[in-house]
Amino acid sequence: MNNLLAKKELTAEQLSMVQSEAGRKEKSKGVAYALWFFFGGIGGHRYYAGNIGYAIGMTLTVGGLGLWTLIDVFLIGKAIEKKNEEIEFEAIQQVKSLAK
User: Fold this and answer.
1) Cα-based angle 27, 33, 39 (whole degrees, multiple of 5)
2) Which backbone phi and psi does 73 adopt, to 5 degrees?
3) Chunked in runs of 10, what are the mean pLDDT values of the chain (100 residues)?
4) Model confidence pTM above 0.85
5) I want to staple 22 with a disulfide (CB 3.0 to 4.6 A). Which of 62, 78, 88, 98 is the partner?
6) Ramachandran angles phi, psi of 9, nearest 5°
7) From residue 69, how far is each of 31, 58, 62 by CA, in Å?
8) CB-based burial label for 78 (10 Å; 0-12, 13-18, 19+)
9) How many helical (H) and strand (E) elements, i.e. helices and strands, does the chain have?
10) Helix pair angle (12-25, 76-99), 10° resolution
């Protein structure tokens, strides 16, 4: 998924539409860390990031008895960045489909 190459073909108006749509749907690292702090044991941050399968696993195992929860503090930032890239890519695809 290379969003820069996908955005290269868009006009300024289309880029503005992508930025607006992606900005509306993007996830915040601050919110994810707050969810980890308060609800990490039951996977609150994973639900927020859209990792429903892992979130259910964390809920059922109480965060892998805490171990999984501690490891996740180092993985949250990258997971949110990846989710935001996916959101932006979907917005690019929507705008491109409108142009056809």
Assistant:
1) 105
2) -60, -30
3) 82 91 95 96 95 95 92 95 95 87
4) yes
5) 88
6) -85, -5
7) 16, 8, 9
8) exposed
9) 7, 0
10) 140
